[in-house]
Amino acid sequence: MNRLTTVLAALAMAATAWGQDTIAEGRKTFENRCSGCHGADGNGGELGPPIAGKVRTLSDAQIATTVREGLPTKGMPANDVKDTDMTRLIQFLHSLQPRKTGFRPYSIKAALTSGKTLEGVVINESLVDAQVRTSDKRIHLLRKAEAGKFREVTSEVNWPTYNGNVGGNRYTTLTQITKANVKHVAPRWTFTIPGVSGLQGTPIVVDGVMYVTSANQCYALDAGSGRIVWHFQRARTRRLIGNAAGGINRGVAVAGEKVFMVTDNAHLLALNRTDGTIAWEIEMADWTQNYNATSAPLIVGDMVVSGTAGGEEGVRGFISAYDQATGKRLWRFWTVPAAGEPGSESWKGRDIAHGGATAWFTGVYDAETDTLFWQAGNPGPDYNGDERGGDNLYSDSILALEPKTGKLKWYYQTTPHDQWDWDTTETPLVIDATWQGQPRKLLVQGNRNGFFYIFDRTNGKLLLAKQFIKELTWATGVGPDGRPVKVPGQAPSEKGTRVCPSQDGATNWYSPSYNPATGLFYMQTNEKCSIYSLRQAEWEAGKAFLGGAEKTDAGTSPQRILRALDLQTGATKWELPQQKGVADSWGGTIATSTGLVFFCDESGAFAAADAVNGKLLWSFQTNQNWKASPMAYQFDGKEYLGVAAGGTIMAFGLVE
């Protein structure tokens, strides 16, 4: 019996005898070992954070392990506590009560500079601002002015959805920040989410309030200062596997008076915009069967649309639409067909039961054709196709769906029988343009497999497929039939097979953008290769379902390159190479009507290039490894660029 088991057994035996004496003894241990950092009441001190109440989210085993091993990365030392003392200490920790602290709301009749009076409850304030909630459940953001009056502020230009618009293009028509003055851009405010790093979300701004997320929590912030309006949080799901278990959440969707977000265990929440309380909650899928969720939902009419993650764990992918008012599921499209359904003939073998193809990333919508475009992930197991012979529909496909019913209009599969984990989840852009002399309704995507695709989005006709990276080994091109011309011998093997692009892809989910004035498509790309190894795989709940392994080819020097592709030909108009060696950042781009491309540089800098020629015009070093894409909005007459850097939300603007 190991030491931890002994402690837990002792806890169980002592359960009936616990009482005030036990707590008193535990207090002594706490005061000797812990109070110097966490305070005598567990509500925090100079050297440590508050833990009162928070320890209740941990099991006794987790508490014992944390106490004995410490948290070296957070400055908590290890403590050698005897078994009998540990049982008492844990009981005392459970008895701690959080101290009621923070701002206490109060009623106010605020005189505004406009001559009106605003009556409500002040939910937050500082020396220069205040936030007031009125009886109609609206949040009002105020700035203190002369003679005890307030000036109300809000956002004049919102960023209401993950990509700024439902068509997917991160393009802003704001005009304050230009090539001439971009050198005067600097951080205007920051907000750090406690205890997290590597944020992947894009901030959403609606009516002056910014919404940002990490796993199972959402903050509503004053978009002009970053001050908290409200905060929603629930405990992370224990024993969860998959990307969400690592804390990934890429943001929210907003419609009416609700904020929609997914939780790590594949639930969809509707939060009230006023205070962050739950309006409704539904389970999209059973997390104990390896489902999880990571990305921002999409608003389409009166529906909220979402998929789930779990492709690397062998779930069966789907896209679902839910009623915004009630959460009722309206339809579901399975990205892996059931046996006997159309497309099931493209699966030969048992792995159709755990085929992956999860729709884990946010799709786009085209109002002109009333079409929902969603992207499906790779088939499973990722690297071993022995028990899934065939094309494996609808994995690695762009799906055009009828939004009212979820019925399939058309599809295009970018990588049939994928064995390299090249999800087609990269954002497709809805673009109206004159293409090769004719007005066309286009759908454009830079794909993880190394090809740039242009479609007629009305019918799915492939108009162009062109390689955009220098080294691509798995195919020689895309044939007249729209299928890649594969190179033999590129499948994963027991000894290892070198393939380009790498498993990370020639590009990935980080956001591209398009400028209609330049006719250029901007995206961060990778020159990088992988060594793929083959293994046998058996699906099991609670475990990954990969069928092999992947590692970066050590014989090459990976590099990230910002590329501008000509929409007419797919050719690279210009490129901006970044530092060599790793190519492991995951930041995207945003294009501006003033001829700039803001992007997340491999070095950790937030930077701007000339959209016409790629010349670097400005950069600010955040010293973070990017995992998010930028956005733009206008608040109180000023243009801002927002981006998540590490664990911090940063808002940039012109310095006056």
Task: Write up this protein.
The protein is mainly beta and about 650 residues long. The protein folds into 3 domains: about 5-95, Cytochrome c-like domain (Cytochrome Bc1 Complex, Chain D, domain 2, Orthogonal Bundle); about 105-155; about 170-655, Quinoprotein alcohol dehydrogenase-like superfamily (Methanol Dehydrogenase, Chain A, 8 Propeller), CATH 2.140.10. The protein is built from 5 helices and 44 strands. The strands form 11 sheets. A 5-stranded antiparallel β-sheet has the order 1-2-3-4-5, with no helix packed on it. The protein has a 5-stranded antiparallel β-sheet with strand order 6-42-43-44-8, with no helix packed on it. Strands 7-38-39-40-41 form a 5-stranded mixed β-sheet, with no helix packed on it. A hairpin with a 5-residue loop joins β11 (about 215-220) and β12. α1 (about 5-15) crosses α4, α1 (about 5-15) crosses α5 and α2 packs across α5 (about 85-95).
Q: What's the story with the biggest beta sheet? A: 5 strands, antiparallel
What is the total tally of β strands? 44
Strands of the widest sheet, in order across it, are 1-2-3-4-5
Provide the domain count.
Answer: 3
Query: What is the CATH architecture descriptor of the largest domain?
Result: 8 Propeller
Instruction: Classify the secondary structure makeup into a structural class.
Output: mainly beta
Strand content: 35-45%
Could you give a quick summary of the protein structure above?
This protein is mostly beta strands. The chain is built from five helices and 44 strands.
